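Please fill in the sequence for the structure shown.

STRUCTURE ENCODING:
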């Protein structure tokens, strides 16, 4: 079953500086969060009745606003991603990649205990249903190239730039999969640790 086959009980949209985000889930947990422009589906209707609000909606809107204004670094929202055991392990490892830092696909494979699963880790990363909260945008190639992002490379570059990372591109709107992060001593140490 794909995310587009899911029938979420609650759906809201949140406007951000990078476009509208669609958030869906149960009464108590977020199960889906993606940029609207990245989805190949019709616009999701926003919830209108106040009595039908999920428990997480106000905190979600507030935390997304704070993240995009540069105030919030760590989300504290109830999530319940739906996936295989392997995907859940990868997504849990993704949650350990802090604001303003990055990890490589190789490091994630090592972190979940299977250094030979880099391609499977990349696939699970691409299938992450809860962007930002499970920060798949913080994963880059071992050579610091941006590689892929289901929301688009430009969006990935914009998110990383918002988190204080420097992109080797004068105009972030021109970023592509081969665009690299500029190394600083701190970033070099971080990526070296991911290769050990």
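FILLED IN BY: designer on duty
SEQUENCE:
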């Amino acid at each position: 079953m794909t995310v587009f086959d899911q029938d979420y009980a609650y759906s809201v949209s949140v406007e951000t500086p990078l476009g509208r985000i669609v958030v869906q889930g149960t009464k108590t947990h977020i199960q889906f969060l993606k940029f609207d422009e990245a989805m190949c589906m019709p616009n999701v209707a926003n919830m209108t009745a106040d009595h039908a609000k999920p428990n997480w909606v106000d905190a979600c809107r507030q935390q997304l606003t704070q993240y995009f204004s540069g105030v919030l670094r760590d989300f504290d929202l109830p999530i319940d991603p739906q996936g295989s055991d392997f995907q859940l392990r990868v997504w849990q490892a993704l949650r350990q990649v802090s604001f303003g830092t990055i990890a490589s696909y190789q490091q994630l494979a090592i972190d979940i205990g299977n250094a030979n699963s880099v391609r499977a880790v990349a696939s699970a990363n691409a299938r992450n249903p809860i962007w930002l909260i499970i920060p798949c945008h913080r994963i880059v190639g071992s050579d610091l190239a941006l590689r892929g992002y289901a929301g688009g490379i430009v969006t990935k570059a914009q998110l990383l730039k918002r988190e204080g990372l420097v992109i080797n591109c004068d105009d972030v709107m021109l970023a592509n999969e081969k665009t690299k992060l500029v190394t600083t001593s701190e970033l070099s140490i971080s990526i070296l640790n991911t290769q050990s």
